[in-house]
């Protein structure tokens, strides 16, 4: 179960606090030293944001943005499929052959739809 | 109380691994390049050994780290520093929580009924682990969203896509382990890997239907590295691509400089980025050790009979405590060895661009992971009853 006992919760909290606390010691020492510096030397200073340029070609062809959005959407769908797969696999380990029929019942239609909905390149090249 | 004690010991292990990771990373950066002798450190006039700069020594580096952080901070004019700071904290909390789920040692007293020596023992721990890795990856994307620039937002989108695809790939790659253990509990993976097995005798007995007495003598540890070698090979690039962070230091030319988000050279950001990057590397290494190298198991050694023999002399508690310390130490040694090997691998391979690594994941690794899963599912289903019917 996902239920966590009080002991485990205390252990998790202690573990995370110890890691973050020990990591924060050096910046805290740095802050303490900075506070002791004379007048304005320790004040934060603004820097201009990074500019990578803006060409007309980039404006005209947003292929990077399109590719990034496609990857993002592919990632979401793949993660969904994989998350559903995990309990199936665990059940297959327990049920052995009797689970296989159920698995085929799930996988078969999905595979059929996936194969039929594949987008093909009309010019005969590789699939887009 | 036991939970807090376990957290303390696990924290000590992570601290040693953090120091080890930093030392390994540094020595790998300073290691001599065979075909570029001009890049090697100069030799001393007397004695002939290498003359390293003062920054080679850990104490000097520690003082320099504090001195860097004592300088005035910088901030990007139109970026949201609150979002960037909170995403760094979120990423660190998620990575630390993922580490707390991993079993660093076996059970108390080496008995099956003993308390598992893990900070948080979850029945669906694998799902939670993957979710925390996803949170950590998406927090990286949020760091990019803190800036108004179109390029930072596109990079954030790419990082988010890479995290999502990486998580899906990790689930596919780890599915054969779930199939073998029929469990999503990380501690069950470690329990499954205790003992040893005879691969040749198993192959002959299960699939060929013959039994040769001599084959029993050749035994390997029951680790998933040996039981499912293809899964182990697949998980290495998967963890590398999923948990790699934008490197803080340029590895090839011995220079240090920031890359990735937050290019304003703020020393505080540099520090937190370095810590997050090393903690992620430790998480990747710890996952590999726990899931594929038997966790804290010692090859060909069962500690239970030794504890039974020691019980009349030393009682139950003290030997069990010594064994627990030994198990944590063994996990630490394995983890440092894996980190050193990963560092060697990283040095000897090129650094892929985001689109290249994404293409590797979607076009190469995902089909291979599916094939591996189908192969192992078929092998597990073709177990004794089916094979008996075929013979």
Q: How would you characterize the overall build of this protein?
A:
The complex is a heterodimer of chains A (128) and B (391). Chain A is an all-alpha fold and 128 residues long. Chain A folds into two domains: 32 residues; 58 residues. Helices cover 69% and strands 2% of the residues of chain A. Chain A has four helices and one strand, in the order H-E-H-H-H. In chain A, helix 3 runs antiparallel to helix 4. The longest helix of chain A is centred in the middle third of the chain and has 33 residues. Chain A starts with 5 loop residues before the first helix and ends in a 12-residue tail after the last helix. With 391 residues, chain B is an all-alpha fold. Chain B has one domain. Chain B is built from 14 helices and three strands. About 4% of the residues of chain B have low confidence. At the A-B interface, helix 1, strand 1 and helix 3 of A face helix 1, helix 2, strand 1, helix 3 and helix 4 of B. Strand 1 of chain A pairs parallel with strand 1 of chain B, so a sheet runs across the interface.
Strand content range of chain B: under 5%
Proportion of residues in extended strands of chain A: under 5%
**Secondary-structure element order of chain B, N to C:** HHEHHHHEHEHHHHHHH
Note the main sheet of chain A: none
- Taken together, the total number of domains of chain B comes to 1
Helix content of chain A: 55-70%
Mean pLDDT of chain A: 77
What is the average per-residue confidence, as pLDDT of chain B, rounded to a whole number? 82
Strand order of the largest sheet of chain B: 2-3
Largest interface: A-B, 64 and 90 residues
Radius of gyration of chain A: 27 Å
Helix tally of chain B equals 14
Oligomer: heterodimer
